[in-house]
Amino acid sequence: MSTSRLDVAVVGSIGLDTIETPHHRREEILGGSASFACVAASFFSRVGMVGIVGTDFPAACTDLFNHFSIDLKGLQVAEGMTFRWSGVYEANMDNRETLSTDLNVFADFLPDVPAEYRGAPFVFLANISPDLQLHVLDQIESPRFVAADTMDLWINVARDSLQSVIQRVDMLMMNESEARHYTGVHNLVQAAHQLLEDGPAYVLIKKGEHGSILFSKDEMFVLPAFPLREVTDPTGAGDSFAGGFIGALADAGEVTPETLRTALVCGNILASFGVEAFSLEKFHLLERLQIDERISAFKEMTQIP
Amino acid sequence: MSTSRLDVAVVGSIGLDTIETPHHRREEILGGSASFACVAASFFSRVGMVGIVGTDFPAACTDLFNHFSIDLKGLQVAEGMTFRWSGVYEANMDNRETLSTDLNVFADFLPDVPAEYRGAPFVFLANISPDLQLHVLDQIESPRFVAADTMDLWINVARDSLQSVIQRVDMLMMNESEARHYTGVHNLVQAAHQLLEDGPAYVLIKKGEHGSILFSKDEMFVLPAFPLREVTDPTGAGDSFAGGFIGALADAGEVTPETLRTALVCGNILASFGVEAFSLEKFHLLERLQIDERISAFKEMTQIP
Predict the structure, then answer these.
(1) Which domain holds residue A77?
(2) What is the pTM of this model?
(3) How far apart are CA A214 and CA A203, in angstroms?
(4) The domain spanning residue A101 has which CATH number?
């Protein structure tokens, strides 16, 4: 794989998660926003990862990234421990509680975007400190489309930097509660339009199992989630969604109302696969045919005569 | 209007509501499941109402029903007070608390279905005691399609009768929490399929602002809600949805996967109008053209390329 043809650059966290759901507990499994996003994107395009792990990062995890042909030139390996997160999901999996967050090598991370990534036409700034997102963005030459995700924490502790991110990206992704928290507006249509005022051409409001809504100044695209019989672990769903989206958009090559919608459906479907297993396990054996079949099924079940 | 051509018979409550939202308080406004359902259905077909009010029922409310050409031969007027309900919505309108419920004339109601309604091809058993729903159903000759709604209360106090209703209808409508409560199953796909086991060919799970999902044994139809900039009063949304649905289905005349989907979209749109004002106020000046325009807009914003 020639890195000169990198389609998507992703920066975000790579970590080891310990997760407790009502029926299972898994320790030190591969997680992090960049892990999910890169793997999901890799089904559609050539992805490079910008992030950091410690010297304890398991070789099996690196092997997994390689399995998906993810370019790892942007993945720093630093002396110390890899980022760790642990959390427990409530009985119905609608809410989760963070038990611990250990930044470890992320504490002193300064992302250095490899020369080969700097011309990447599509960029996804996955959830990570907005200062790091900005630092990455500064190193990308002239991206065609930049999407950014964030989380509640940054709204609380780095609002100004987050606002700078919002002003510089083409698409901001936020979940319902983050959009309400950031804007102080409960109604999602109003909140999204307030976010659009800050600069991005597109705001995507994610509603978890209830789907998502894409807003631009003139349009909405309302996308329900793919209904699942069983959700094993919702961790990373938003990252898989975003990764599938940016990967498919890069594959389309141009940004139009149609390619955006098609790419969002891809992200939606990747997220639906992702939550059917822990970590990236569902993706490991997933084939493009299964993705296409679920996309077809989804189109059929949302088709209005 | 000749009553011999009645398309839809609806039984349910008619009452006077006192409602407090974060910004408004309205006293003794027209409400009740049958009121919303009949008015919404009346945009698409000829509707007859089965219910009861007291001698205090305001003439203006009867005038409103007449304005929508709703057949009122099935509306009993009994000595005593009309049903009353009062509730208060929480700050974000996601939850409400019932402050009082006064059955009044509903306490001794025994619905008598007028001879002219007994051949109605489409029937909606709006939220009311399942024993009364069964009593109405017994009086309908050979309906083509019967839909029933219910509420948490009946799951608690009249589960056996509710099960009989479920066994006898073509479509059961429940909101998320009711479906979970009745089945004891959290996952909505599994809960819906368990409900299908009880007999109805269709189960509609209503998710409020997040839309709804229609289940049959072989199919799903996933329908997001129409995103609104402002919700004034969510009371009656499910009833307007059901009424718009059954009215549009009756207008189509036959029950196919296509007519069901089209009718659900109509219900969805009627509900979206209904919550933009208190009581039935939004419907008063609503014209068919506005409904058609919003349906077109909805199709556009959900269209997958």
Answers:
(1) 4-302
(2) 0.95
(3) 6
(4) 3.40.1190.20
